[in-house]
Amino acid sequence: MLTSVRRGLAVTAVVLASSSLLAACGSDDDEGSGEASVSGCNTGNDIKLQLQWLPQAQFAGYYAAVDQGFFEEEGLTVEIIPSGGDIVPQDALSSGDVDYAIAWVPKVLGSIEQGAELTDIAQIFQRSGTLQVAWADSGIESVADFEGKKIGSWGYGNEWEIFAAMAAEGLDSTTVEIVTQDFNMNAFLQGDIDAAQAMTYNEYAQLLESVDPDTGELYTPDDFNVISYEDTDGAMLQDAIWAETKCLDDEAFADRTVKFLKAVIKGWAYARDNVESAAEITVAAGSSWGPSHELWMANETNKLIWPSTNGIGIIDEAAWGRTVDGALAAVNEQGQNLITAEPPATAYDNTYIQQAIDELGDEVDTTGADFAPIDVTLTEGGN
Q: What is the reported pTM?
């Protein structure tokens, strides 16, 4: 997946919105791109966007904004920087290496408590895409059934929804055995764990692309019990766009941020309305997934974004509060808390995404009220 985890894979590929040379964040440029203001923040038109994982349709809207020229329309050149786990997005942002970063909210809340000054400026994913998948005959049908079981987790911050949901059920984290799971479903298929962590848009599809050795046919949803954390009190907000808080106090940076978000909105609206094209764009950008898997991912990612009742990227106060409550309640098997106090009011701000929505007006459907996902047929191996 998916998030900023360490797989030890160095990724150097970048995507450019134009062929012009990209200035480093905070550096000066003779033509005004990538220029640093008195705040020390890059206020130029050359932007670095840090992803939390490799190129794939989880990030289709950003790649579409490049491919379709939406950033260029706003006068921006955007470099999209993948991470194979070798880069932690919020760390890259805090160190000034990039201008914006995509990261899960609970992970950044932990960083904020440790001293990072970051602000969620656009909550792209409105819903959690995390699942726990067990066999249909396992007896594991809810989080309450985790007690005494081997529960798979990727770790590296991806586990906090598990612990938040357990806390909501009154389960002590020491009553389950948390087993470190690779970013595939092999351990589950081999019987090494009772329930595997999965994302709706990735690992769950990997199961449905696998052949059941007993039948010679692909597994089907009927073979599994699927627990969606979105349906639990442990659900947490995931992919959001973050900026350094101090930079948002810089008028030039703030104005440029609105332009950036306008292009991002257009990119995600394009990915919603042209899902097949969006999947093809991410394949061309370097995704290693097969075409049916990538189409599944684009389709499932859209479900986490649309419909956006208040407009794409608007941070819903109730969903934010639920995430914070879960982060406060979550205690891992070592007895550690994700956070111990409420985050500061600066941890999120709807100002910039709302301005972007307002400026776009009727040009773009920013709520997707009529969104309907397509049907995707997975093939063996996702090819």
A: 0.91
